[in-house]
C-alpha cells in the first residue's frame, strides 16, 4: 500500500517523466540483451565462432563510458529531455544498423556505437527522473528505475523465446536480424518524450540563473574540483558492477556445466532469479527511505553471503531456483538503492555527467570479470565454477559493504543546482 501511495502522490507530469525514464532504461537493456540471446545465431550467419561474435559484448561495455560522458555534457548544456530524446533515437538507429550489417567487422562497429548510446541513457534518464520527482519516496522510485534493466532482460528473453523459432525461412532477413529490427522500435519513445514529458525543473532553474549571471553553470574546471568525489563513485561502482557481473555472467554456464541442467531448466532458474532481482530492487530501495541508503546497501550486500550454500552448492532445479531468487534478491536489492544514492551524492552542477560516467567506468573496469572467474576456475578448481562463484560473492559483498560504509550519505537532499559535494 505504501508503494501505491508513493505513485498516487505524484503529479501527472512526474508520472509521465518517471515512466519515460524507466521505459528508456528498459528498452535500452532490451536491445543489449537481444545480442546475448542471439550470439549463436549471429555466429552461424557470419560463419565464425561464438567467441568472435562475443567481442561485440566487450565493445558495447567498453564504449559505454564514452557515451555517459558525451551525453552527460549534452544534458548539462542543452537539457535533460532533448538529450534523452537524441540518446534513445541513437541507440535505436545503431540497433537497426546492426540488423543490416553485412559483415562481422561492420557489425562490431555498430555495436560499439550502440555502446556509446547505451552508456548515455542511464545517467541522463536518472538525472531527469530524480530532479523531477519529490524527495519523499525517492528510494522506492530508485529501486523501480534500476530494475528496468532486469525487465529489459526478461523482455529480450521472452521475445527470443516466442518469436525466434517462428522466423525461419524469411529469406535474407534471418531470424536474429528481424529481432534486431524489432529492437529499433524504442525510437518511438522519443515522441512520447516530446509531447508528454517536461524538462527537469532543476535544469530550468540553472538555465534561468545562468541568464541572470553568465558566470554560473557548467565549467570544465568543476570536473577537476570534484575529482575526489568522482573517484570514490568510480570505486563504488566498480565494486557494484563486479557484484552483479560476478553473480550473473557465468551462472548459466555453472548451472549447465557443473549441475548438468538442460537449457530449458537453466532458463527457468535464470527467470526466477530475475524475479528475485526485481523484488529486491524495489523492496530494498523502499527500505532505504526508512533506514538510510548506506545501511540498506550494507545489510543487503552482506546478506548475500548466507545465500551462497543454496545458490552455489545445492542440487536440483527447485533448490537452484530458490538459491538464484535469494541471491539476486540481495544483490539487486543493494543495486536498487544506487540510482538515488548516486544522484544524491553527485554535485548539482555536474549531476547529468557524474552518476552515469562513474557507473559506466565501473562497468568498464569490471568488464573482464567473467574471463577472470573462468581463469581461476580452470587453474584452481579443475574447471568447476562453484568454488569461484562462491568466493566472488564472499569477497565482493564485503568490499561493496566496506566501500559504501566508508562514504557519506545525502538521503533526501534537495537536487538543486547548488554545488553539493557529498561524496
Automatic annotation (TrEMBL):
The keyword Hydrolase does not apply. It is a multi-pass membrane protein. This is Permeases of the major facilitator superfamily. It is found in: Membrane. InterPro entries: MFS, MFS_dom, MFS_trans_sf, Sugar_transporter_CS. Its main location: membrane. It holds the Pfam family MFS_1. It comes from the Bacteria. Residues 17-409 form the Major facilitator superfamily (MFS) profile domain. Keywords: Membrane, Transmembrane, Transmembrane helix. GO terms for cellular component: plasma membrane. Gene3D superfamilies: MFS general substrate transporter like domains (1.20.1250.20). The chain crosses the membrane at residues 21-44, 56-75, 82-100, 174-193, 223-243, 263-284, 296-313, 384-405. One of its GO terms (molecular function) is carboxylic acid transmembrane transporter activity. It comes from Granulicella sibirica.
Amino acid at each position: 500500500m505504501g508503494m501505491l501511495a508513493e505513485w498516487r502522490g505524484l503529479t501527472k507530469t512526474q508520472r509521465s517523466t518517471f515512466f519515460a525514464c524507466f521505459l528508456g532504461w528498459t528498452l535500452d537493456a532490451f536491445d543489449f540483451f537481444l545480442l546475448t540471446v542471439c550470439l549463436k545465431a549471429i555466429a552461424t550467419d557470419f560463419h565464425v565462432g561464438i567467441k568472435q561474435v562475443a567481442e561485440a559484448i566487450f565493445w558495447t561495455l567498453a564504449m559505454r563510458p564514452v557515451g555517459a560522458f558525451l551525453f552527460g555534457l549534452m544534458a548539462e548544456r542543452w537539457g535533460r529531455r532533448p538529450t534523452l530524446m537524441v540518446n534513445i533515437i541513437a541507440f535505436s538507429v545503431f540497433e537497426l544498423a546492426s540488423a543490416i550489417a553485412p559483415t562481422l567487422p561492420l557489425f562490431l562497429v555498430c555495436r560499439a556505437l550502440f555502446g556509446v548510446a547505451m552508456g548515455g541513457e542511464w545517467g541522463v534518464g536518472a538525472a531527469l527522473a530524480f530532479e523531477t520527482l519529490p524527495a519523499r519516496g525517492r528510494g522506492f522510485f530508485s529501486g523501480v528505475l534500476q530494475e528496468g534493466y532486469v525487465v529489459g532482460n526478461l523482455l529480450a528473453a521472452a521475445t527470443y523465446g516466442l518469436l525466434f523459432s517462428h522466423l525461419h525461412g524469411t529469406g535474407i532477413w534471418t531470424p536474429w536480424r528481424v529481432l534486431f529490427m524489432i529492437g529499433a522500435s524504442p525510437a518511438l519513445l522519443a515522441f512520447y518524450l516530446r509531447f508528454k514529458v517536461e524538462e527537469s525543473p532543476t535544469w530550468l532553474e540553472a538555465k534561468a540563473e545562468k541568464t541572470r549571471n553568465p558566470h554560473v553553470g557548467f565549467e570544465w574546471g568543476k570536473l577537476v574540483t570534484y575529482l575526489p568525489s568522482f573517484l570514490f563513485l568510480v570505486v563504488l561502482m566498480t565494486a557494484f558492477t563486479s557484484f552483479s557481473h560476478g553473480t550473473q555472467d557465468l551462472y548459466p554456464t555453472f548451472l549447465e556445466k557443473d549441475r548438468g541442467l538442460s537449457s530449458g531448466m537453466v532458463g527457468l532458474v535464470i527467470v526466477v532469479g530475475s524475479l528475485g532481482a526485481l523484488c529486491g530492487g524495489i523492496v530494498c530501495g523502499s527500505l532505504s527511505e526508512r533506514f538510510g541508503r548506506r545501511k540498506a546497501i550494507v545489510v543487503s550486500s552482506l546478506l548475500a553471503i548466507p545465500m551462497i550454500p543454496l545458490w552455489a552448492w545445492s542440487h536440483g532445479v527447485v533448490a537452484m531456483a530458490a538459491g538464484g531468487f535469494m541471491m539476486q534478491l540481495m544483490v539487486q536489492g543493494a543495486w536498487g538503492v544506487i540510482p538515488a544514492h548516486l544522484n544524491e551524492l553527485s554535485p548539482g552542477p555536474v549531476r547529468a555527467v557524474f552518476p552515469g560516467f562513474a557507473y559506466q567506468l565501473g562497468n568498464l573496469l569490471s568488464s573482464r570479470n567473467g574471463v577472470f572467474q573462468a581463469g581461476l576456475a580452470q587453474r584452481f578448481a579443475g574447471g568447476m565454477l562453484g568454488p569461484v562463484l562462491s568466493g566472488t560473492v564472499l569477497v565482493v559483498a564485503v568490499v561493496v559493504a566496506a566501500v559504501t560504509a566508508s562514504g557519506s550519505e545525502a538521503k533526501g537532499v534537495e537536487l538543486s543546482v547548488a554545488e553539493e559535494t557529498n561524496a
